[in-house]
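Pipeline run #58 for the internal structure catalog. This entry was flagged by the ingest filter as a single-chain record with no existing model, so it goes straight to prediction. Upstream metadata was stripped on purpose; only the residue string is passed forward. Reviewer on rotation: M.T. Logging verbosity set to normal.
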Amino acid sequence: MAKIADFGLSKLRDANQQGSTVVTDHVAGTSLYLDPEYNKTGKLKKASDIYSFGVVLFELLCGRLAYDSIYYANNRTGLPSVIVGQSFDMERLKKMVDPKIMEADANILKITGGVNQDSLETFITIAYKCLAETQAQRPLMEFVIKELEKSLEYQKSSKDNFQMSFNEIISATKNFSEYNCLGSGRCWKLYEGKAFGDDGCSTILVKRWNNKYDPKHHNEFLTELEVFFKYKQESIIGLGGYCNEMDEKIIVYEHGYNRRLNKHLDDVNLTWTKRLKIGIDVAKGLDSLHTGCAKKNHVMIHRDIKSASILLNSDFRAKIANLELCIKFWEYEKVESYKGDHAYSSVGYNDPQINGYLDKDSDIYSLGVVLIEMMCGRLAFAKRHKQSLGPLSKLHYVEKGNLDAMIFEGIKEQIMSESLITFQAIALQCLNSDGKTRPSANEVVVQLNKALEFQEDIEIWGLKLPKDYKEIIKMSTTPDIYSTKTRKELYQIFHKGILLQQGKLWFFLSDNEERNEIVSARMFSYKNHKLHKWRSVHKSRFQRVVKMFDVSHLNIQIKIKPQFLSQNVIYGASLVFKYYDPRIISFQPMYVNLKYKMGGKTLNAYFATWRKDEWMMIELSRFLYDDKYTDFEVQLDSFSRCYCLSGAIIIEGIEFRAINDVSFKLFAQSEAKLKKSHTLPAKKVLLDSADVKCFTWKSLSESRFTEVAELLSNQVFRIKCKFENQALSPNTTYTCYLIFTLAEKCQGLQCPVRIRDVLLVKNKETKFVYFRTPTSVNLHDITKIPQQRDDGLSEVIVWEFNSNKVKGDHIPMHLKLISYEGNMRGLNVYGIEFRPV
């Protein structure tokens, strides 16, 4: 890492001084690095340092000092004169690059791409600009830094950032300790190690070639590197680094947490589904090798596909390894195999029809053997078996028509028949004697995916379906169309919804697999037949919905027995409806004030929520569903006409939906200790209000204030005041409570009251408060519920703020409270209390 030194000639300037030029008769500096304009005029600027720095950049690039003798030939006077002696010529300047930069292994550079050209050209360009003749033409140091960082990023994103030192690898493997050795090939050993980097400690695999072997094995090292750089795919093991120094040939891999596949073949924990996914991964990796350079008609053959060449990560996803034997050739050529070379493939995996030549079909044969290994739960060849798995499976199929007798007992019960049939068919095709009739790696991927879909259709989707899904389908309006659907498709259909009972009931599953249903409005009773008609409406689940012409007199009797709900689950029963011609459409809860009777009580449901399909829902009740539950009964009386122009609504039905969270937020606040609370009397917060004539003032014995404001017959009142910021604690969130009681003769205020912050005109958030505690049904997070205080008064939250976000010495407050229906007569306002959260 570079450190600037030698400050003896430095000049100190005042950063606030207007001019940035020092004029001197004593020019100082080192020849060849000296700014020519400064040298001529004595004017020293920051741009003078930029020139010197440009010379250093070219020294780095050329690998020579500026005053090297090579730069004094042919009337030249040092490195700067060579660079700026002619007009800017990128190709000429590239020829000046230090050859030592290119002295690494030429074959590796050919594979990795060497010095990135974008990086090199960016570096040369900015270095050249630094050597501009005049100070005004040179770039600022900020721009120089930006361009050098860009050059560095180009090189970092280049092909070769994987070189590791031999000392790093010695440290990671504890000097290639035999304790860390995981296995070996004929010319290499594989070690496990611990590497330390920017992301902490990570486990790596290190393959070290034996340098005592024939030098031709160096080609295997290069071949494996080429595969890593040119055939990148998630199913091929990732490169961690390489070392090519001190006669060492080493490749570092990402770690396979679960080691090699051959160690898991007889493991019952390696389920059939996992084995299918491993087969898909290996086939994808092979497809990448076989087609990765299709534009150049190149084919890369692995030549050693076997279960020991497949590493498994922590999720048991497969990675193809042992790439040193790969060979590349033109797609339409045949490549002569190395006769007598035991490195080609392994016993039990090699293509018996190779006849001295090989192509990508040879890899497919080996893949077929690996698939059979996973089905049988054993290696392709073992001394106790007379025949390897490839020929043995073909013999079994000829004799019995299937391979069922060869299946590993530990997984036999897991396998679905369609999955097994599909798997066996593609595995046997891979083992065809004629290589031309074997499938491509991509075709293997397609068929194994089908086998996986068959398996998951029952193993995953079958378990997610309702146990009685077949009986439910029989009750649908069109049961025949579902007979050809897979379980996954049926699961998706059930989540979307399905019509049952001659189109009068809509059944669907929630995200957590609970059963829900919507009963059509056709199942309701209508006392006044002249006030409703049946209509077809866009986006309805049912063919017909009911249009009610008078929302003030609904007279609808509902008696329903839910049939398809989940046992011992809490359900919310909601009316699904929409206004025929609403004034507004908003996804904020809307005040509708539905009056209805249930269990002999008259109830109110104040707010309806919007859905994405523009229907609205309003919750009427909640209940625990079990075998003893009988009928859901309710009488709908009237809606508010607040947002209804014509007075008509459209009712789709009653929805029974499972409730996940049965707790209700009542917004209780706890007293914060050691922080300031502040209380303002009603006189302070109401006298500045425009609605002051709507109050009458009286004294009450229980009030700590001399007078209390009682509201008269008005629908709106304001809370308006200013109070000192210093009265509150800094960096504290405060909740503002309205302190009140209701007069004995007060008959209203059952409905919610809307709050609007007049000072936040752009804030469209709607909040509501209640002055009487409503039923727990139909509450929302935006509603505030009154709480009883220890002093016998009541309080409700009307405002919240943070003391640090308020500017100035005074905190303004201007709230407008609006009642939807009736007036707020009989509301006694005591004051406002600011309490820290």
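catalog note: Confidence is low (pLDDT under 50) at residues 337-344, 661-674.
catalog note: Residues 441-464 form the longest helix (24 residues).
status: ready for reviewer M.T.
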